[in-house]
Design goal:
34% helix, globular, disordered N terminus, alpha+beta, 6 helices, 9 strands, 3-stranded mixed beta sheet
Amino acid sequence: MAANLSVLVRPFGATHPQDFDICDRRYGTNLDIPRCDVAVARLDSGPARIPYRISDQEGPHTLPRSSDYGGCMVFVEVAGPHLPQTYSLIPDVVQSLASHVINECVGRDGRSGGFATLDLGRLIDFVLNPSTAFPANYPSSTTFLTVSITSSDKKNPSPGNYDPIIADTLAGAARDAAMHVPAASAVRKRLVERAQWFRRRAMRMSTGGSTWPWWG
């Protein structure tokens, strides 16, 4: 995906090879780094892995959760069609991802919002598995996390469910995988079909929307 003034996608690199961050002004504009830093500091902290309960009622160690300060909001959400009852997180890692988005999007990309993913590789591996029936019945093990930096008026953005970049990422992963198997193989045909399916899905989705999730 090409970078432009409103959207910029970057891979994290070797430590998170299948996760990425994206800067997009539709998640927020005119955000302020010091205020966003305070919002992040109000999240849980600590190096130990903690099971968070997935619930509509926010409380201690529940997801989704948010933190707001001075017009800057941090959202921590899980994504996927079939969510587990709990999702294990290291709070310091979540804070690090949020700070990464602030540095890249608020700092370098003109004070815009954006989000980062964590554990997206679980979903990608499932989609690329040739034995996966498709369209798939996604197990809870494919759930992944998003950490978003937004304007305070952007309620529950849920980019992991509704941002077209997720479907585009899955399409790209399937397309790239198809290039590494023999041209005449059934596996390549399956991967190409999956890439085309996710690309069509992405075209129906919209950033900030809540109607068309990536899974259908």
